[in-house]
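[User] Could I get a sequence and structure tokens?

[Assistant]
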Amino acid sequence: MSDSVSALLLAGGKSSRLGTDKAKVKLDGESVMIQAIAEKLSELSEDIVVSTNGRRYEDITIPVRWATDIKPGAGSLMGLYSGLLAVKHDYAIAVACDMPFINIELLKYMLSLPRDYDALLPRIGDKTEQLHSIYARKCLPAMEKFLGSGRLKITAFLDEINVKYISEDIINRYDPQHLSFFNVNTAEQLKEAQRILKNEE
């Protein structure tokens, strides 16, 4: 476990496409998704912050701290910003509550690299993954600038900071199927996640 990095779990979305709170979905019939992800993050950090729009999840049975969106309903960048304000360390792993297959070994590799960046993002082809990433607290001023102008996506502020990338070759070494970045946003994706989990068992 790293004692110099925090872990940030974003759980402030509306789950409108799924029709139910995706953080509370049980993929395996036992643990709700947010609990399972928090348990994985506990392998990497003793400081886990769950960033929400004000909700609290009693399903999480391990020690976590809570961050409430400064302005609820203001998108993923607000969730990341509010969470980074609350973390103890200079850097934080950031994942979402709808990413059931976060890859601990890939994250350990990312944590092993020199922290000479403001953000470290996986990149596959021309697509970057804004979550399953690492952000520095020194991103906060750039985030404030874009939130103030009403640009609410995480991609909005990346041109303003020093971003480094994890190449597809490295990602493939740890996660050849790229399941790390799988999101459960729809009923179809939920069924697919359950199928993947069953095949992994």
Notes: DSSP finds six helices and eight strands in the chain. The chain has a mean pLDDT of 90. Residues 58 and 174 are 32 Å apart (CA to CA). The first helix runs from residue 33 to 41.
